[in-house]
Amino acid sequence: MLTLPPKVTDRAFARLAEIAEMTGTPRALRVAVDGGGCSGFQYDIKLDDPASDDLVLEKDGQRVLVDAVSLPFLTNAVIDFTEELIGARFVVQNPNATSSCGCGTSFSI
């Protein structure tokens, strides 16, 4: 299987643009993987400023950041934005995860 960086959907970039418009301060979305959570790893998704070693995924002036340590865990993943009955949030569809928990932010490899 070809190793590719994560892909960000148009819907996720559009939501970032909406957030920037509401706050008046454009910030990048950081998607990181930390140890912990109920399945071994968990996603840390937050607005942040870029660091020198980040992979920057950009479209229409909106940016998504992935740090060098998290990048191998997010190979071929899709970063999306979803609106459901439980709320609206950024989500990661990760083909590397062998299992995940109900919260949607914790997974194992």
Describe this structure in words.
This protein has 109 residues and is mainly β. Helix content is 13%, strand content 43%. The protein has a 6-stranded mixed beta sheet, with helices on one face. A 3-stranded mixed beta sheet has the order 1-6-7.
Q: Give the uncertain stretches in residue-range form.
A: none
Helix percentage? 10-25%
Counting helices, strands and paired strands, the structural category is mainly beta
Number of domains: 1
Instruction: Tell me the major beta sheet.
Output: 6 strands, mixed
CATH topology: Hypothetical Protein Aq_1857, Chain: A
Radius of gyration: 14 Å
CATH class equals Mainly Beta
Q: Tell me the series of helices and strands, N- to C-terminal.
A: EHEEEEEEEE
Total strands: the figure is 9
Shape: globular
Q: What CATH architecture label applies?
A: Sandwich
Mean pLDDT: 85
CATH-defined superfamily: HesB-like domain
The proportion of residues in beta strands is: 35-45%
Order of strands, widest sheet: 4-5-2-3-9-8
Give the terminus-to-terminus CA distance.
16 Å
TL;DR of this structure?
Helices cover 13% and strands 43% of the residues. It has 109 residues and is mainly beta. The chain starts with 6 loop residues before the first strand and ends with a strand.
List the helices and strands and how they pair.
Elements: E1 7-8, H1 10-23, E2 28-35, E3 41-48, E4 55-59, E5 62-66, E6 78-84, E7 87-93, E8 99-100, E9 106-108
Parallel strand pairs: 1-6, 2-5
Antiparallel strand pairs: 2-3, 3-9, 4-5, 6-7, 8-9
